[in-house]
Amino acid sequence: MSLFMVDSEKCKKDRICVDECPAQIIAMKDKQALPEPIHRAEDFCIQCGHCVAVCPYGALTHEAMSPEQCPPARKELLPDPEWVEHFLRFRRSIRTYKEKPVERETIARLIDIARYAPSGSNSQPVRWHVVYDRKEVRKLAGHVVGWMRYLIKEQYEFAMSLNMDRIVTAWDAGIDRICRGAPHVIVAHAPADDRAAPAACTIALSYLDLAASSFGLGTCWAGYFHAAATMWPPMRNAVDLPERHTCFGAMMIGYPKYTYHRLPLRNEPRITWR
Ligand SMILES: Cc1cc2nc3c(=O)[nH]c(=O)nc-3n(C[C@H](O)[C@H](O)[C@H](O)COP(=O)(O)O)c2cc1C
Q: What is the pLDDT of residues 129-185, one digit of tens each?
């Protein structure tokens, strides 16, 4: 099969696929010709499936996906702007969790949603590491505290500015300000030298964060966990990602103990118009 095929009975020669292809690998010789791949199209195609998804008639089948495999867009399921604004403003960082674990299937479903997040050149570099075992989460939080003790001892400026001494004191008193007692932590990782990976992992985790809120779950970015997992050898060893991979973000997840009743305020936007 060539990179894509066009059904001559369904195609209306409207050029939509030609116009929408991000890599500009679809051409029509003239107004009556069917769309076809340009020379070396397979070298430039990013397999985004836009050609398949944008055709109103289901006329184009890409080697990576057919119209039948791609679910139809359902306009009735799309939220209006007021709904979206409220949903986004309602999401909170959750720092007090119930004991109850999150079902593995639910976490798998969230990750399945998060994989539709955008990535540079559609490279989809994100891989997932779920620290599901609560004892393991606690152990890793202990490594983060070990890192903080080191930073404090060596008088690193950011240990002072982030008041890490208070976090360590809390830990010694049995209060976990690293993973906040969350039952699980989800890590997004990728090859350390992948230039698309930092943004891709951050966006994918944001997707997961927002999706989790709609499942009645609580999440919180695990910034200290992430920092220690990239910088502190005992933590890197304990997280145990594949060779040459690095952690590009981590998120606590669990059932929230409390409900928020209001939407807190934030700074006014600072915008430059030209
Ligand atoms: C990259 C990043 C790292 C964060 N790390 C932590 C963290 O380690 N611990 C924590 O309690 N909150 C962490 N947060 C949550 C922020 O404190 C929180 O987003 C902010 O206070 C706003 O609250 P909201 O998320 O409920 O709007 C982090 C947030 C981001 C975006």
A: 999 999 999 999 999 999 999 999 999 999 999 999 999 999 999 999 999 999 999
> E strands of the chain, at which residues?
4-6, 26-27, 36-37, 60-62, 127-131, 184-191, 218-221, 245-254
Q: Which residue is listed with tokens 């989809």?
A: 124
> Ligand 1 — pocket residues by CB below 6 A?
92-93, 95, 180, 220-224
Assigned token pair, 193: 């030298």
Work out the number of other CB atoms within 10 angstroms of the CB of residue 269.
Answer: 5
The residue to mutate among 221, 225, 258, 261, having the most atoms of ligand 1 within 8 angstroms of its beta carbon, is 221
Question: What global pTM score does this model have?
Answer: 0.96
Q: Is 61 left (phi over 0), alpha (psi -120 to 50) or beta?
A: beta
121 pLDDT above the threshold of 80: yes
Asked if pLDDT for residue 114 goes beyond 90, the answer is yes
89: CA distance to ligand 1 center in Å?
14
